[in-house]
Write a structure and sequence with these properties.
CATH topology of the largest domain: Rossmann fold
Helix content: 25-40%
Shape: globular
Structural class: alpha+beta
Number of strands: 20
Strand content: 15-25%
Largest sheet: 7 strands, antiparallel
Number of helices: 23
Number of domains: 3
CATH class of the largest domain: Alpha Beta
Radius of gyration: 24 Å
Length: 611
């Protein structure tokens, strides 16, 4: 996604900072409709911003006296932060600058901000530059030190345009990506390049060139509530906070859309939206006839929304994802870029997507196993839930004192994996995520884990507040409505397992029978042309780059077991998942070192030259 780029000036740059800054900004400008702010340079720093030209935005930097502010994203509680004066404040960047000056260099005010943003504040009088992330750091900001310069960017690829930067792949990143499927904590693909942590400020002293990082907010700041608890009252309060969160993110004069699935989270967003009728757009992606498409179409009618379907097929799923690897800095296996096939249409349908990201985790407790409900975060139990070696979770110690393991998943799986599935779509439209509303989030995580276990309080909240959308309407996960008895839910899950088992056994004898429960069919699609030949050509090519970091024989063994042996799983290995990780790694290495595949080709895959 677009955002911020910049660097502090060192003598080695030889007064070429304007050209360097322009090249860095060009690396994060992916569409013709992007807008670029001025290329700001002085004797100490060079900063600029690229944005998709949706949100009201004055040219940046905003100047508040001798303090300059660049902001990527938006603030949602402007009225609260400005004591009711938000109408007289020209922009979110202006409000951030005013708050910074009022607090005389203290960053405690950042704790009060409810927003989705990253920012740069240049304090000229103090010769200090501050890089800032919000509480959850979904607006990513990478940074590194190159020679005498501190360099930062909202996308990792922008560092490739900095002349003194030489990318070196971190072997630990290879291990994490291939074994877990995403990178952990603040690791990046490049040695020496870091992701700025959530709730943090990185301060550069421009007179001494020193760097200091401080944390202004941490998960432990949320204190658990003491019982007794009334479930009806809790569900009512959750509903009130959730509706407020949606309203705060859907009250502007824009065209709004929702990525509507057959699940609970996006449906809750739709139900809480103030808009209805044809002005509200919904879109569902999946294979023709799948449960998600069927259920979503039914739900969209309840709001009289204009509903769109993006079909995923063996022919259209792979090609757009090659460019998607570039957009996501290689951090998301291309198997998980669901819906990128319709991204070129998003801009025609809506400006802002109000998204159900993380609702199943935050309210539904989807990562709470029975063992994790009644105990603090445990590295072994979290690794078990992640299906990985506990030794990979090297930064777990500070989580062990927290009252719920969810915070580890939110910091890692949600921030580094699930949200990256939104990152590529932010190249075209704005995404807002109500489940991360500060007041809602704090209330949810002040409650006991038991209430969220198996979506207990979440289902109750949904049925109390939005009965029309949930009573009698199936949940894709189980195939039955959430107001049905638990025995019916268990029966629905059992039926799904039988379908999957039958599908797997029939596939082994050459019969292709697939359930409509799943919205994708990647194993079958990878075995079909054009993907089959493309996977083989890329991964078997003698000039491939990945063998420098990972044994070629393991990749070829998995490829043969999947394509020739017809195996979907063996010894806990999901072959389609692993092959897509291998392919993503190779495509990313080619993009970085050979400048190939940086755009999705307009030709068919059969005409696409392999490595």
């Amino acid at each position: 996604m677009p955002g911020l780029v910049g660097f502090t000036l060192g003598p080695a740059l030889a007064q070429d900072e304007g050209r360097i800054l322009e090249k860095m900004r060009a690396m994060i400008a992916h569409q013709s409709f992007y807008k670029g702010d001025q290329l700001f340079t002085d004797s100490l720093v060079a900063v600029s911003r690229s944005h998709i030209n949706v949100l009201p935005s004055q040219s940046q930097p905003h100047k508040e006296g001798e303090v300059l502010v660049w902001l990527d994203g938006e603030l949602y509680n402007r009225d609260e932060l400005s004591n009711g004066r938000h109408a007289s404040i020209s922009s979110d960047a202006a409000l951030l600058g005013e708050l910074f000056i009022q607090n005389h260099g203290s960053f405690s005010f950042l704790r009060r901000i409810d927003g989705d943003y990253s920012a740069v504040i240049y304090d000229r009088p103090r010769q200090a530059l501050h890089l800032i992330t919000d509480r959850y750091a979904m607006r990513q900001l990478y940074w590194t030190i190159v020679g005498d310069s501190v360099v930062w960017a909202s996308e990792l690829k922008a560092f490739l345009a900095f002349p003194l930067f030489a990318p070196r792949i971190d072997p630990e990143a290879i291990t994490e990506f291939l074994e877990i499927g995403y990178l952990l904590e603040d690791r990046t693909w490049f040695l020496g390049v870091h992701l700025l942590s959530p709730g943090s400020v990185l301060t550069v002293n421009l007179s001494t060139s020193s760097v200091q990082k401080q944390r202004y907010w941490w998960w432990a700041d949320i204190e658990p509530l003491r019982g007794p608890f009334d479930n009806t009252e809790i569900a009512e309060e959750l509903g009130r906070l959730f509706i407020q969160a949606v309203l705060r993110r859907s009250s502007s004069q824009h065209r709004f859309g929702i990525e509507l699935s057959g699940g609970l989270d996006s449906r809750a967003i739709l139900a809480a939206m103030p808009q209805q009728g044809t002005s509200l757009q919904t879109v569902t992606f999946g294979k023709p006839g799948c449960d998600d498409i069927r259920i979503a179409a039914r739900v969209a009618k309840l709001k009289r929304a204009t509903h769109h379907i993006v079909e995923l097929t063996a022919q259209n799923w792979l090609l757009p994802r090659l460019g998607g690897v570039w957009w996501t800095d290689g951090e998301l296996a291309l198997l998980h870029m669901h819906g990128i096939e319709g991204l070129n249409l998003y801009r025609e349908w809506f400006d802002i997507v109000v998204h159900g990201h993380a609702g199943d985790v935050i309210l539904g407790g989807s990562f709470l196993t029975q063992e994790l409900v009644h105990r603090p975060a445990s590295r072994e139990l979290v690794a078990q839930a992640m299906r990985c070696n506990p030794d990979l979770l090297t930064s777990f110690k500070e989580y062990s004192a927290l009252h719920t393991s969810d915070f580890y998943f939110l910091q890692n799986r949600l921030r580094r994996f699930a949200f990256t599935g939104i990152k590529y779509a932010q190249t075209a439209v704005v995404f807002r995520t109500p489940f991360y509303d500060n007041k809602l989030f704090e209330y949810v995580y002040s409650l006991p884990n038991e209430l969220r276990y198996k979506s207990f309080i979440y289902k109750r909240m949904l049925l109390q507040n939005f009965p029309l959308f949930y009573k009698g309407v199936p949940w894709q996960k189980t195939g039955v409505p959430i107001n049905w008895p638990s025995v019916a839910e268990r029966a629905g899950k059992f039926r799904r397992r039988l379908h999957r088992a039958a599908s797997w056994r029939l596939a082994k004898i050459g019969i292709n029978w697939k359930s409509d429960a799943n919205y994708t069919d990647y194993p079958n699609w990878i075995r079909q042309e054009p993907a089959r030949s493309f996977f083989s050509q890329i991964l078997e090519n003698p000039a491939a780059l990945y063998p420098e970091f990972y044994p070629r024989w393991r990749v070829i063994e998995a490829l043969d077991a999947f394509l020739v042996g017809g195996l979907d799983y063996m010894n806990g290995i999901n072959y389609a998942e692993m092959l897509c990780r291998y392919l993503t790694l190779e495509i990313w290495l080619q993009q970085v070192f050979e400048k190939r595949y940086r755009e999705s080709p307009s030709m068919t895959l059969s005409g696409l030259e392999a490595v």
